[in-house]
Amino acid sequence: MRLEDIMTRRLETISAHASVYEAIERMVDKRIRSLLVVADGPVETDGVVTARDVVFKVLAKGLNPHNVRVGEIAGRPLRCVDKDQTVEAVAAVMEEANVARVFVCDEGRVVGVVALMDIMQANLVARAKNSHA
Amino acid sequence: MLKRLLKGNRKEEEALVSMREHLGLLCSATETFDRLLNERKEHLVERICDLEREGDMARRKVLSTIFEGAFLPYLRPNLCRFVELVDEAFDTLEDAARTFAMIRLHPSLTDECLKIASLNKQMCEILAVAFEITLQGGDLREQSLAVRILEKRVDDLKHDIFQRVASLPVAGFWDGKFLADFLESLTRFSDLLEDAADALYILSVSFR
Question: Entry's InterPro entries (chain B) (predicted)?
């Protein structure tokens, strides 16, 4: 199974300077659980903000999401995997790092994201195709 | 149960062979369509139309064999429904191929359309596997789930495309219409295959 076949190519991004409230709006509108946080510097300074970060680091602490910048709560560095890696290897990376998604990078550029759900679904589809063989 | 139904019944076997052929032709057509979108070679449109015509012949053979008395009466409606759904998917794919030849796909839509064509191809492969499992009296649970997963992904991609398509420039009424028709056919195919998988599931239960 190739990583390229199961990854999501369309990445939703948000500036590190945007407010957490804007991130919440984006997640609700797009029905997604994470955003790629784009910093001003090179890709190494990018991060990811998840619904988990929003709840645990802002809302549960009683902070005003309008007053907190996304860059302040974003997880860094990005967990990047090479686009040529196998799905099994990526699952191992996710287990080791205890994360639900990793970004797929190619020549220093983020080209996609793979979530646990993508891996689970890809596995089920592969099983369904091969169960008659 | 199915083996009992088929034992010594030439008409049933004939009908099933034609159904397998029909489905096989559809799978070939989805592969050709995938190539068409990637390579944009005009002759592939004609190839899909040829496959559709062959598919029509297989469909007619299945239906006429059933109307000649193949299978027990309670099985016939679901068998016919399955065959009709596969045929409708074939027609839809042909429409998508023909309209694709008349449009210039905007680069911002290319990735999603290629992805949908690939998902359609995978759905068809799984439907063919499900058909064989049905004939063996097996359980279609895994194939049914896989088809639903893939259909949901096509739906998500369709949603993405339709969010952006309204802001794309079109040269005129007909360009816009052909683009809309192409997208409609491309995304409707997976709905039909999902319905066909459901019909097959009902058949597999009836065969037990």
Answer: DUF47 (IPR002727), PhoU-like_sf (IPR038078), Put_Phosphate_transp_reg (IPR018445)
